[in-house]
Fold:
Amino acid sequence: MIKLKTDKEIKVMIEGGRRLRDVYKELKKNIKPGLTTKTIDATAEALIKKAGGEASFKKVKNYYWATCLSINDQIVHTPPSSRIIKEGDVLTIDIGMYYQGFNTDFSDTFVVGSTRNKKTLSFLQVGKNCLMKAIKECKINNHIGDVSRVIEDEIYGHGYYVIKQLTGHGVGRELHEDPYVMGFVDKPIKKTALIKKGLTIAIEIIYSMGTENIRYEDDNWSLATDDGSLSACFEHTVAITDKNTLILT
Structure:
């Protein structure tokens, strides 16, 4: 059941999203080779608390961290650990904040340090561009399937692979709400959810360089590409108003 938000509720989410984005900007500034992902997570949680929020992810059953920090072939849901970030690693930071009763969710992938690897940089740029194109389809009287179609066309059109088992989602009082926002078209578009005023969703571009297939790592949270190829995730929380689509994060 899709939970549409009132104008008042969206205002709260706008403020929560702004604060989360500021948290992320501050967090990213401090990331450098030699840090453990556990250290990055501790910094993230401190920044969230300083911003007046709580870590959304810690509200997920049996997940005890503020962030998911995935490296290279790791796709999503990787818990922080004693793993050390190296120069040239591709790091995905997935982070959410609970503020005044509502969640916002955000993810970004980037190279730690510097790189001249054009193949990696091109891979990441495709995901960034795809997210913005998908958001443009998120407007009143379109369907969620219109968003999914853009993601599928963009990712496969550039020779990459959508991780089909993982999706975007509604977001609000709960971190994960209806509807699912697939990265591919799994049914006729007109049979997917109609986009209406008050809809708040997290659109996620979750893809890899070499495969659709995934494997669980030993911790039973972290998912990685089955062939060891690079993966990335780009995510924004958006809200639909009667005037336009707002990017909250």
Observations:
- DSSP finds four helices and 13 strands in the chain.
- The longest strand covers residues 90-99.
- Helices lie at 7-29, 37-50, 118-136, 144-157.
